[in-house]
Amino acid sequence: MPKRSAMSRQMRLVLLSLVTGIVLMLIKFIAYFITESNAIFSDAAESIVNIAASGFAYYSIYLAAQPKDENHPYGHGKVEFFSVFVEGALIFIAGSVILIKAFYNIFFPQPVANVEEGIILIFITSLINFGVGFYLMKRGKTLRSLTIEADGKHLQVDAYSSIGLIAGLFIMKLTKLPWIDLALSIVLGCFILYNGYKLLRKSISGLMDESDQEVVEEVVQILNKSRQPEWIDVHNLRVQRYGQEMHIDCHLTLPKYYTLTKVHDSISEFDTILNQNLDSKTEFFIHADPCMSECCHYCTVKNCPIRSEDFRKHIEWTTQNVTKNMKHFRKA
Q: What is the pLDDT of residues 150-193, one digit of tens each?
């Protein structure tokens, strides 16, 4: 998929999220003004975060699609992690504001009115939020966009909290216990804080170049499926994601009697197989290691002129042995 085409699709998705957020925020604040419910205010306050986050995501997707340059040799994809960080921080702030207002109203309570109308309006917003959020998450995974996926997840979290809010308001209407509104507001505030923390954790992991374990597992599966006899072992595998692009470093053990041309051909084949099977454009840094006599017992190269012992053991490649910086005979 051409980068510009992918960018335009992502920007249209963020624009959908932004327009949806504005419309739903207006509906939720209407519900708050007619009910004066703290719980509904909590839901409406989070909608402001949705709008701010979508606006920043729109710009970050544009920036992430810019080509590599001298100052950014790995491209601009990491801005997506920063976008998720901003969204997580805004969610965290919204949760804090909600909790502060809830505790304030413990000492200075205000009556709740027109509960039925509020329930209907919030129910409408929850349906729209869930539908748009589901669509964004699905498209975000297809496009390999962390920003779109995070935006969709945020909308779905908003929908879940709205459903909980509706259930609580319904119980309050039946029991006529006003403190339920405050309790709901506190629960929603804590729930929002937790989800803000999860987004912050995810973004910091990306900014700190934490390895993407799902991608590592996918790479290992592809390597096992396409394994060639001369690929004696793969180790020190590291995967980093920069927006829609990935960078993979690894050491590939090859027969030590190979010529430089043969080593180049083997590495090129290794690169091609992975790029053909991975959804993202991938840049490789492959270090070729020569085999050692200790590798012979798990080497499957036929008619090897330097073999010191017979093949005895097949070593399956796993996320545990390909990510360690040592040849496999040291763990055999």
A: 778 778 877 887 887 888 888 888 888 878 877 877 887 787 78
Q: For residue 73, which phi and psi values (nearest 5 degrees)?
A: -65, -20
Asked if residue 180 and residue 103 are part of one domain, the reply reads yes
Q: Given this model, what pLDDT does residue 203 score? A: 72
pLDDT in tens, 210-230: 666 778 888 889 989 999 999
Beta bridge partners of 251: 235, 287
Q: Looking at the structure, do residues 197 and 234 belong to the same domain, yes or no?
A: no
Cβ neighbourhood burial of 7 (10 Å; 0-12, 13-18, 19+): buried
pLDDT of residue 1: 45
Are 266 and 291 a contacting pair, CB within 8 Å?
Answer: no
Do residues 201 and 284 both lie within one domain?
Answer: no
Number of domains into which the chain is organized: 2
Predicted TM-score (pTM) of the model is 0.56
Q: Examine the domain organization and report whether 233 and 105 are in the same domain.
A: no
Write out the residue range of the structural domain in which residue 91 sits.
3-207
Q: Of 239, 244, 245, 242, nearest to 218 (Cα)?
A: 239
CATH classification at residue 183: 1.20.1510.10
Write out pLDDT tens, residues 231-289.
Answer: 999 999 888 766 566 778 899 999 999 999 999 999 999 988 888 888 767 778 899 99
